[in-house]
Amino acid sequence: MTDLAAYMSESIRNIMAKAYLNVLANPHEARFVARMQKIFVSSERRRKAMIDKEGLEVPPFLIASIATTCNLQCKGCYARKNGIATDPGQSTKATLTAGQWHTIFSDAAAMGVSFCLLAGGEPLTQRAILEQAAEVKDIIFPVFTNATLIGPQYIDFFKHNLNIVPIVSLEGDATATDDRRGKGVYQRALLSMEMLHKEHLFFGTSITVTTENYRKVTSLEYLQYLAGLGCRLVFFVEYVPFDESTQHLAFKDEHVEEMERLLEQRREEVKEMIFLSFPGDEKALDGCLAAGRGFFHIGPDGAAEPCPFSPFSDSNVATLGLKEALRSPLFTKIRAAKALGWEHTGGCTLYEHREEVEAMLRN
C-alpha cells in the first residue's frame, strides 16, 4: 500500500516542477510558479502539523462547485443530474455568498490545502466568487469551464491573477465536443484557447474519457495538437454512467491499466505537458481518494460531500468549518468501512455504491 500523504505531496512537487519548466519562457509565469513551489512546501508542513497536533488528515485538494447555473446543456452532465446546475434564472438551490467562499478558501490555505478545483454549473458566471478566490494567494484554483464566457475582461483577470487557472472542457475533436456540448461550442473553446495562448497564460483542458474515445484523446497526434494550441495541462476524467444505457462507456480495470500505461508513455513523448487522470489507479492508493482521504467536494450551499458524484452530506462547511467537516460522521464511516475500496465499474466507487452511502447517512 502506498503512503498516501507522501505520495500526494510528491505528486504536487512533480506537478509544480514540470509547470516551472513549461513557463520558463514567460518570466512573469516563471516567478509565480517558483513562488508557489515554496508556498506548497509550507502547505505540506501545515498538513503534517495538523496530523501531529490534532490527529486530522487534511487533503491537499478540494473541489468546490461555486455555480448553480450553466449556459450549456451537455449530455450526461453530473451537475445537472445531481441537481447542482440548472439553466440561468431557474436555480432555487441555496448558495453561499462570495464572502463565505473567501472564508472557506482562506481556512483551507491555513490548513495546508494546495489546490481547490472550481466547478459548477459554469463557474465563470460567478465573477465575484472568483475574485475572492484570487485573493487567497497560497492556493491554486483550476477553474473547469466550458470557455464560452471567456473574453477580454476575463483574459485581463487571468493575467493579473495567475493562481486562477482556466481548464477548458473538451470531448476530443469538434464532432465529439459539439455532439455532447452543443453546436459551435468547440470553435468557441478554440477561440478562448487562442486568446489565452496569445497572452502566454498557463491553461489546461479537461476531457471526459470513455471506452470509445480514450485511445484517440491520448494519442500522440491529438496531444501534440493540444500542445500546439498552448495547452500545458490535461485532466482526463473517467466517465461516470448516470444513465444505465451508457454503462458500456464506463472504464473497467483493463481500461484503467491501459490508460495509465498510455499516459506514462505520453509523459516521455510530450514533455511540455502535464497529464493527470481522475480517479486514476485507485488500487495503488488503497481505494478512492474521496471523503477527505485526498479531497472532498463542497456544494454551492456549503454542503461537505464525499465527491461531486456522491452528493450526500451530514455537515456544512460554512457553518461548521473545514475541520469539523473533515470529521463528519459520514466521512468517518466511509473511511472506516473501507468503502473507498469497494469494487466498482466506471469512474466513481461511491456513485456505484450510492445505496450503501445513503444507508450510512441515514444511520
Notes on the protein architecture:
By secondary structure, the protein is of the alpha/beta class. The protein has one domain (4-362): TIM Barrel. It has helices spanning 4-22, 27-54, 78-81, 98-111, 127-134, 152-160, 174-181, 185-198, 214-217, 220-228, 253-269, 317-320, 322-326, 329-336, 349-352, 354-362, and strands at residues 61-65, 115-119, 141-145, 164-170, 204-209, 233-238, 274-278, 297-298, 304-305. Helix 11 links the parallel strand 6 (233-238) and strand 7. Helix 1 runs antiparallel to helix 2 (27-54) and helix 4 (98-111) runs parallel beside helix 5. The two termini are 30 Å apart.
Note the main attributes of this structure.
45% helix, single chain, 363 residues, globular, TIM Barrel, 5-stranded parallel sheet, alpha/beta
Summarize the structure in short.
The protein is 45% helix and 12% strand.
What structural class is derived from the secondary structure elements? alpha/beta
The helical percent reads: 40-55%
- The beta-strand count equals 9
Which percent range describes the beta-strand content? 5-15%
The SSE string, one letter per element, is: HHEHHEHEHEHHEHHEHEEEHHHHH
Query: Per CATH, what is the topology?
Result: TIM Barrel
* Tally of individual domains: 1
CATH level-4 homologous superfamily: Aldolase class I
What is the CA-CA span between the terminal residues? 30 Å
Radius of gyration: 19 Å
CATH class: Alpha Beta
The 3D shape can be described as globular
Largest sheet: spatial strand order: 3-4-5-6-7
Total number of helical segments? 16
Mean pLDDT, to the nearest integer, reads: 90
Poorly predicted tracts of residues? none
Largest sheet report: 5 strands, parallel
CATH architecture level-2 label:
Alpha-Beta Barrel
